[in-house]
Amino acid sequence: MSEPKTYPSAPVELPLRLDVEPAPVEGCAGCAELVSVRVRARAVGDITTVTDCNVYLRRHPEGH
Ligand SMILES: [Zn+2]
Q1: Would the pTM count as exceeding 0.70?
Q2: Ligand 1 mean position to 34 CA, how many Å?
Q3: How many helical (H) and strand (E) elements, i.e. helices and strands, does the chain have?
Q4: How far is the CA of 1 from the centre of ligand 1 (A)?
Q5: Which end of the chain is more exposed for a tag (fewer CB within 10 A), N or C?
């Protein structure tokens, strides 16, 4: 049995688009905090933290 397992480069699913940043939900302390962290992270070039904040901001409906 020689079934070639050559998947056509299985794409890594990226649920988040880095070019569109989520806006904080008004009145949510969690979102406000995340935005301030994001601003500071971006100021120092910490893109990883910026991305993390965006992920959490998107999760607002599910809770932070
Ligand atoms: Zn929120």
Answers
A1: no
A2: 8
A3: 2, 0
A4: 53
A5: N
- Count CA within 13 A, CB hemisphere, residue 9: 0
- CA 20 to centroid of ligand 1, rounded, Å: 17
The type of residue at 60 is: H
The answer to whether 49 touches 16, Cβ cutoff 8 Å, is no
| Centroid of ligand 1 to alpha carbon of 63 (angstroms) | 7
| Whether 4 contacts 37, CB under 8 Å | no
- How do the pLDDT tens digits run along the chain, 64 residues long? 677 777 677 666 666 555 678 999 999 999 999 999 999 999 999 999 999 999 999 999 999 9
Estimate to the nearest angstrom the gap between the alpha carbon of 53 and the chain centroid: 6
